[in-house]
Amino acid sequence: MSTSYTVCGICEQGCGLKVTTENRRVIKVEPDKDNPYSWQDFCIKAGKSHLALNHPKRITQPMKRVGDRYVATSYDEAVAAIAEGFNRIIDQHGANAVASYVGNPNGFNFGSALFHTMLLDAIGTESRYWVGSIDQNALHVVSDELYGNPWVSLQADIDHCDHFLLIGTNPQISTMCWIGYSPNGWKRVLARKAEGAEVVVVDPRRTESAAKASQHIQPLPESDWALLLAIIKVIVDKDLGRPRDQHLQGLERVLAIAASADLDDLAKRCDIPVEVIIQLAENFARAPRAMAVARTGVSVGRHGVLALWLTQVLNYLTDRVESEGGLYYVSGVLDLLAAGDTLFPHSEAKSRLRGNKNVAGAHSLAELADEITTPGEGQIRGLIINSGNPVVSGPEGHKLDAALADLDMLVVIDQFQRESHRHADWLIPGDHFLERDDINPLIQSLSPTPRAQQARAAVPLPETMRYEWEFLRDLTLAMDKPLLDGKKWLNPLVKASIWLARVTGKKQLALSPNLLSRLLIRSGGRFSWSEISRATHGLGKVDDRPQFGTLFEKLSQQGRKVALAPDSFVRHLQQTLDTPLAKNPEFPLQLISRRRLKMMNSWSVETSMTAMSEREKTGDRIEINTEDGQRFGLQEGQTVTVSSAVAELRAVVHLSDDIRPGVAVMEHGWGHRTFDPKTGQGSYNGGVNRNQLVSNRDLDPLSRVPRLNGTDIRVTPVTAASPSNPAELAAR
Ligand SMILES: Nc1nc2c(c(=O)[nH]1)N[C@H]1C(S)=C(S)[C@@H](COP(=O)(O)OP(=O)(O)OC[C@H]3O[C@@H](n4cnc5c(=O)[nH]c(N)nc54)[C@H](O)[C@@H]3O)O[C@H]1N2
Ligand SMILES: Nc1nc2c(c(=O)[nH]1)N[C@H]1C(S)=C(S)[C@@H](COP(=O)(O)OP(=O)(O)OC[C@H]3O[C@@H](n4cnc5c(=O)[nH]c(N)nc54)[C@H](O)[C@@H]3O)O[C@H]1N2
Ligand code: SF4
Ligand SMILES: [Mo]
Asked: Which terminal CB of the chain, N or C, has fewer other CB atoms within 10 Å?
């Protein structure tokens, strides 16, 4: 038996792990309690993560589609054929005809993410789609406008905060992470509460976190912008603000908007009484130290950008940024404010059909299906999906599924063949974080205090596999595209270095992710590579005190202030205010989502979901308020049809007083299959894919995120004509 220490690669929290192996198999994954930084959030998702390693359905060799079967091939054959196929598409239809969708786990796989981007740059395609457009795009849009850099995110000074306003986040289940993370964050919030701090949770559902809060506010979905503007208005009217205006630009404009807003109208829009709003505003403004934080729950709704923007306006107005117990910018292992533009070059690319500008370098997943199926110059004919399950996790998956079938070539890099991959022409094995030796300087830069830890492989890759980044590098070379920054003459040198590394057995001689991490970490100047290499349990102290003021200093070095009132936001706010509150009687409920501890979006099927009891497998459940149940004549346990403007499906009613009236809740990540490419057999994971109800046309106009939270729906008793989900799936 042997023990090694590494970093969890499942969510941003990046917990320290202790991994026990026997005969080159992982037998146990536990928290690494010697990790000075992060282990306390350790959860069952990591505890069962090793079950994927030797799973019989895992893809461990490149698989080629032959008719309706897959056959195993060599990497050389796969690389040559894919290169030839993509080059043919590019020759006929141009570079934009080869597209890419990158899912969430790729963010934790530095080598794969890096070489994937290098491949796209080498091809020169602007047809880039990624998970941000079904997750955090609202933050990127807000940061881009406020700070001139989409990657700036502020960290939380939890241990010194007296008042937490938490909007659209459920940290008891999800942990405190979202483009940044707070180790043991939720428990530290609760520890502050025990010491007298106020914790206010804003959520239409009485969540696990809301149940532990001091106060729970239940607004209508997608109305947080109205609640926030109302709070800001009260603060402005009562002169409770104390903005540091020397760092702010546009403050006057924001104050004028707040002064002219109509409190009663805003209160109606979020359905929170005016007296409650006044109290919320006074409590927030008068707290000695406070922070307002808005996350996924609002970002994946129609007014995500407005809500995230107004959250920051509230923070700046009450001096909660770069001050103790509030939010602050940290220059970690990398200084993202300084490095942002080099790492993520600005792109003005617009989508072909809808003409939308990209966000953080990528178009919205909501546009992908149409871009594949609509003929014309630039139509997408080839696609590479890396670490994503967009048919399940994104909007109107059934349409995307049909579009994927229409491609000339679909290449998938994943550990498993899931619903989004069933039309794949090529399946390329995905590596597992327990097999990786890497450090992710980008994710680690999003820490509240400087932190660095190298992940260390607990087990080697299966002999038949290469790392994802090696496949992507070889594909770029085989396509004869410039691997580095337009410098095609470097390709032979890279090829020579790969050869040299192979014959000498010295991996470090080849162009590798670790070489690039090393360069990045050196440029950040925070830790030395040898220090990091020696630190088995990682470097960094959670209780280091921040240097407040860094954000303002860095911005002023760039000749900037915080742009508090961007034109596009102000315009959209005005339009939203001018649009009267109206409910379509055809769809009287709004559907929101929930996560659970044993699931990671759609992909813990082979690992932590195996620890779910049959009773826990409620992926076809729709939760609605008890009074709404009576209003619509629905009983507990009744099977119903859930309809939206774009789809309908079956679900089972659960009546609950935890849900506010007018709202329904269904978990995402259910209702899909995992296939065994060796046999062609698919197994159904239970539940229904509630995201089919989400329109791919009804988006937040500023972030292009679809309404994964807030979808207008109707719930009616089933009739003979209603589709039955599993059967419907099997028939597809
Ligand atoms: N209704 C609703 N929908 C939502 C959300 C919501 O709150 N409500 N949340 C959204 C959010 S926040 C997110 S992040 C998205 C997620 O959306 P996606 O990232 O598109 O999809 P996932 O379901 O996370 O699937 C990830 C895929 O990556 C594979 N994978 C895991 N590890 C690796 C690896 O190391 N290498 C490779 N190559 N593949 C790997 C898994 O097998 C799986 O197939 O879903 C969004 N969808
Ligand atoms: N166990 C587990 N942990 C995870 C994940 C997982 O799938 N499972 N996913 C990881 C990922 S990829 C992410 S991005 C993070 C997300 O973590 P969080 O940002 O905490 O997001 P959620 O857990 O989706 O919680 C969002 C909350 O918003 C509420 N909500 C819905 N609509 C609205 C609205 O209009 N207004 C308000 N105020 N609230 C609303 C929902 O009821 C829900 O409780 O979690 C990460 N951690
Ligand atoms: S999945 Fe669990 S163990 Fe892994 S980083 Fe996230 S919270 Fe930590
Ligand atoms: Mo996410």
From this structure: N
Tell me what the pLDDT averaged over the chain comes to: 94
Residues 239 and 164 in one domain: yes
Mean pLDDT throughout 214-235?
98
Q: Please report, in angstroms and rounded to a whole number, the separation of the first and last CA atoms in the chain.
A: 47
> Residues 681, 625: one domain?
yes
How many angstroms does the Cα of residue 700 sit away from the middle of ligand 2? 18
Using a CB cutoff of 5 Å, list residues around ligand 4, an ion. Answer: 135
Mutate to test the pocket of ligand 3, among 6, 43, 44, 109 (most ligand atoms within 8 A of CB): 43
- Ligand 1 pocket test: which of 116, 602, 688 has the largest number of ligand atoms within 8 Å of its C-beta? 602
- Using the predicted structure, report yes or no on whether residue 203 has a pLDDT greater than 70: yes
12 CA to centre of ligand 2 in angstroms: 13
83 and 48 in one domain? Answer: no
Protein residue closest via CA to atom 14 of ligand 1: 104
User: Are residues 368 and 295 both part of a single domain?
Assistant: no
The domain that holds 9 is classified in CATH as 2.20.25
Residues in contact with ligand 3 by the CB-under-6-Å rule are 8, 10-11, 13-15, 41-43, 45-46, 175
Note the pLDDT tens digit of each residue in 55-96. Answer: 999 999 999 999 989 999 999 999 999 999 999 999 999 999
φ, ψ dihedrals at 266, nearest 5°: -65, -40
Res. 720 pLDDT band, cuts 50 70 90: low
Average pLDDT over residues 133-143: 97
**β-pair type (382-386, 409-414):** parallel
Count up the domains in the chain and report the number: 4
Of the residues 572, 596, 621, which one is the last residue of a structural domain? 572
Tell me if 174 CB under 6 Å of ligand 2: yes
Q: What is the bridge-based pairing of β-strands 16-22 and 25-31? A: antiparallel
Q: Are residues 588 and 689 both part of a single domain?
A: yes
CATH number of the domain bearing residue 172: 3.40.228.10
Mark whether 619 and 694 lie in a shared domain. yes
Task: Give the confidence band of 724 by pLDDT, cuts at 50, 70, 90.
Answer: low
Q: Whose CA is nearest to atom 2 of ligand 2?
A: 174
Residue 575's contacts (CB-CB under 8 Å, 6 or more residues apart) are none
pLDDT at residue 732 is higher than 50: no
287 within some domain = yes
Q: Does residue 393 have its Cβ closer than 6 Å to ligand 2?
A: no
- How many angstroms does the Cα of residue 136 sit away from the middle of ligand 4? 7
Q: How far is CA 26 from CA 48, 153, 424, in A?
A: 10, 35, 30
Average pLDDT in the 272-294 region? Answer: 98
Determine if residue 254 is left, alpha or beta; phi over 0 gives left, psi from -120 to 50 gives alpha, anything else beta: alpha
Supply the DSSP symbol for 28: E
In which domain, by residue range, is 282 found? Answer: 157-332+561-572
Instruction: Give the CATH number of the domain where residue 723 resides.
Output: 2.40.40.20
Q: Is residue 346 domain-resident?
A: no
Contacts of 302 (CB under 8 A, 6+ apart): 222, 698, 699, 700, 707, 710
Same domain, 107 and 210: no
CA atoms within 13 A on the CB side of 78: 27
Please identify, by atom number, the ligand 2 atom nearest to the C-alpha of residue 296. 19
